[in-house]
Specification:
This protein is α/β, with parallel strands linked by helices. The protein folds into two domains: about 5-120, Rossmann fold (3-Layer(aba) Sandwich); about 140-235, Winged helix-like DNA-binding domain superfamily/Winged helix DNA-binding domain (Arc Repressor Mutant, subunit A). Helices cover about 40% and strands about 20% of the residues. The protein has helices at about 15-25, 35-45, 65-75, 85-95, 110-120, 160-170, 180-185, 195-210; strands at about 5-10, 30-35, 50-55, 80, 100-105, 140-145, 150, 155, 175-180, 220, 225-230. Strands 2-1-3-4-5 form a five-stranded parallel β-sheet, with helices on both faces. The longest helix has 17 residues, at about 195-210.
Length: about 240
């Protein structure tokens, strides 16, 4: 019997967790439940899931800290489920690495649809299946099907949102993209998200590029406008296939 992708539901409300599992199972997924922060981290480490549904108000460790710790070692897609509707909470969740969020009350059907979208974007990247990098641009290469990116053959550990952000900037290096344009690119299916979320994602992407790319501060801020990608100086002659 084929088993679908494993989805970890981190929720301490037993009835709500059971309802989410019911809908996920009906959609072909294999749900697992963790009722507190520590057990969620333990489950991710023991049996890495394809996606995580993460409530913010958890015993032991809250969802923000759980998300932060997961992101230290994993790029697994995280859908944050929260009763906190304030913009600052949504921005903070995205800044520490969540890929999407839903505010309570939400429809279980929408949760499943969001999970499906996250897994579609991360397919290939999360499975660990090798894929050949595409044509290089300034040392970078991307795989659209698997939504992965490389620097000189080394896979960059990007979340789906960070991948879409880098992919957009790579389309026209040197061009300044406004925050609104980048927001449209990285949150094509989104709703009420502040431009500040773009700044958070750029911050996270910069940190990862700086760790992987020599002189890797290649995303430039243009005051009052947005961001552009400046290719490393010694790679300017690379062939573009993007």
């Amino acid at each position: 019997m084929n088993v679908g992708p494993r989805v970890l539901v981190v929720e301490d409300e037993v009835k709500l967790a059971a309802l989410l599992c019911e809908y996920l199972r009906a959609a072909g997924y294999e749900p697992r439940v963790a009722e507190d922060g520590p057990s969620a981290l333990q489950s991710v480490a023991a049996e890495p899931p394809a996606a995580v549904l993460l409530d913010l108000n958890l015993p032991g460790l809250d969802g923000m800290e759980v998300c932060r710790r997961i992101r230290r070692d994993s790029a697994v897609p995280i859908l944050m489920l929260t009763a906190r509707a304030d913009e600052i909470d949504r921005i903070l969740g995205l800044e520490i690495g969540a890929d999407d969020y839903l505010c309570k009350p939400y429809s279980p059907r929408e949760v499943v649809a969001r999970v499906r979208a996250l897994l579609r974007r991360s397919q290939g990247r999360m499975t660990g299946v090798a894929a050949a990098p595409g044509p290089e641009l300034g040392g970078f290469a991307v795989d659209d099907a698997g939504q992965r990116a490389w620097w000189r053959g080394r896979v960059l550990p990007l979340t789906p949102i960070e991948w879409r952000l880098l992919r957009t900037l790579m389309q026209q290096p040197g061009r300044v993209y406004s925050r609104a344009q980048l927001l449209d690119a990285i949150h094509a299916d989104f709703r009420d998200v502040s431009d500040r979320a773009v700044d958070s994602h750029v911050k996270n992407l910069r940190r990862k590029l700086q760790a992987a790319v020599p002189g890797g501060d290649c995303i430039a801020s243009v005051y009052g406008v947005g961001y552009r990608l400046d290719l490393p100086a010694d790679e300017g002659s690379a062939t573009s296939g993007l």
